[in-house]
Amino acid sequence: MATQDHAVIIGAGVGGLVSAALLAAQGMAVTVVEAAPTPGGKLRAVHPGGAAIDAGPTVFTLRHVFDAVFDACGSSLDAHLTLTPATILARHAWGDDRLDLFADPAESAAAIGALAGAREAAGYRAFRAEAQRIFETLDRPFLQAPQTNPLGLTWRLGWRGFADLNRIRPYESLWRALGDHFRDPRLRQLFGRYATYCGSSPFQCPGTLMLIAHVEAAGVWLIEGGMHRLALALEALALRNGATFRYGAPVAEILVERGRAAGVVLATGERIAAGAVVCNADPAALAGGAFGAGVRHAVPAQPPARRSLSALVWCARGNAEGFPLVRHNVFFSRDSAAEFDALAGGRLAGDPSVYVCAQDRDARDVAARIGPERFQIIVNASPTGDTHPLTQAETDQCTQSMHATLTRAGLTLDLPAAATVLTRPQDFHRLFPRTGGALYGPDSHGWAASFRRPGSRTRIPGLYCAGGSTHPGAGVPMAALSARLAVDSLLRDRASTVSSHPVAMPGGMSTRSARTVASA
Fold first, then answer.
1. What angle, 0 to 180 degrees and rounded to 10, lies between the N-to-C axes of helices 14-25 and 228-240?
2. Mean pLDDT, all residues of the chain
3. 3-state SS of 348-406?
4. Single pTM value for the model
């Protein structure tokens, strides 16, 4: 095997797994090195009380992104996973007030009308239309294309580029933009929550992020066995095409020879030579020296002030009483502004919003079995796991505040300590070094935030980035898109070093077809 035909991928998160599968399908030799004992990265599971519980992302959207990945690798998503469309997207509660959003937009509009009146139902329909327009404006020229700057995006949008850019609400906050559609503060709070999907505040991120609402409204799927099964399916896809996985293998250094990436050195001292390296770690780890001084300059450093949110995450097997849970449930704070002010100041919110994923509730929203259920519970926190680890007293107070929010809505959760795993910002910082526990890379605050995310190519030839902390953004499908962009860049660069003419690639893909990976 020639070194130039070998790619090393650091990390088996979604970005690393998709990169491995796509590169292996093109005939390259692929070695994935992962510090953890299992695949998934943030898409991980824990096992309190012996039950596998999703400890990371729980919402599966943009299924077509993964359909395209599996198809490009000679398989299908349905051959690996059983997926069921959710009929209720989420149940929301403000004390005694409740609102369901449905897969059927007419049902959602009717539910909003019943809660807040006909004017708010009309506002919801207008909001949906605007969210869809923003998504469709940015999908191909930005989300599925390499990182660019505002001028480059304007050029990609064509002759109406400047007008289209202004219409995606980049210069006003999401909270303010929502005010054009909703007078009811509960609805502004509900749809403002989508900012937290990329670890940001609705008061500081641009109105552009209302596109996330369209992504969710376009379809949520339930994966039988849990979201971590997606990681196992992607691993199997890569293995099927010849990739090698090495777990419990942390990387100490990325090798650079003659000005380009040349492989990695493991913590054991073992050297693995390669013609290309894909880094599926937070770029903050690169800039912070986690992979050696020789690659610190590979990506721009992001100051800690620009980190996205962290969280306290309880994964437990317990019992619920008093509130009709569905798979996805959100219980809101009584003061959204105070909640995000506290987080911006590095403090835990005294009255937090709480997300509860009841993982044994199926698409019909009934418990899959009698007895204890599996829960994931999330409260947002500041990304200060490296500078201000939460004390036990702060943790206990947050736990009490979490239960208080649930109790206002009538929900009682009995979570035995022996069947509960709690992950705090300092724990996430240990899992994902140099991040402070930030879960979404840099924040999305301000109009220029999306352009500041590192792209696929770095300043070092042969070194590429993939994952939810890079372009195009946070979330499981975005991490997959980032991997497709990284693979596309790698294949283009590899082809250009061989010949300036289209040549046959391993696996029967020409350099011309390799350039279409990111838009498949």
1. 20
2. 92
3. CCCCCCEEEEECCECCCCCECCCCCEEEEEEEEECCCCCCCCCCHHHHHHHHHHHHHHH
4. 0.92
